[in-house]
Sequence to fold (225 residues):
Amino acid sequence: MPVARTVTPDGDVILLVSGESAAARAAAHAQDDDLTAVIEITDVAPVSVPHRIRGRAWLAGWLTPVRGSDRAACAALLAERRPVGELLGMAESLEPPYAGRPAWMMLRLEVGEISVDDLWGAEHVEPEALATAEPDPMSPHEAELLQHLHTAHGDRLGELCGLLGSRGADAMTAVPLALDRVGLRVRFTGGAAGAFDVRFDFPEPVADICGLRRAMHTLFSAASH
Fold:
């Protein structure tokens, strides 16, 4: 498992890995870009719900160590994704020592192919799309928000059954499954239809927590009426 990872403006994936890892050892002995590799990412719902895996993604390409002048720029990108203190503690060991293997190594995956299989379906994604994608503003807060909804607002989630029409039933249990800037996905279980997911779109995409509070208030108000 990488300690940290990020995506460059060109769509390459930068990984910070232990110098003792198999990936670091293989990359150190590879010639140029002849080392092929696949990153598999598994997305697991942060709440307890049947079938918790929300999706998987596979990024295939060519793995090389980050060298020369690129090291400083890549380290700065990684620091944006991690608390500064954690990377500062590794700063000296990021540079190869005079003898032996470095404690940490930065690797670059030049992405050639991407496959995604998630709640929206299975498809191939062009590497250029990864380079231009913007992080969802809710992503850093999603796990905490879903857990809070599940533990503190189960009754309000249950009211969403009123928006399901003929599929709604009082005996169903509603569990928040996914949250992003455009909506909330809820998994309903216990009804005659079995388990199924419903996505509740917000009136407009939200950009921050304040916008999310307004969107959730609008959604719950519609359900209660």
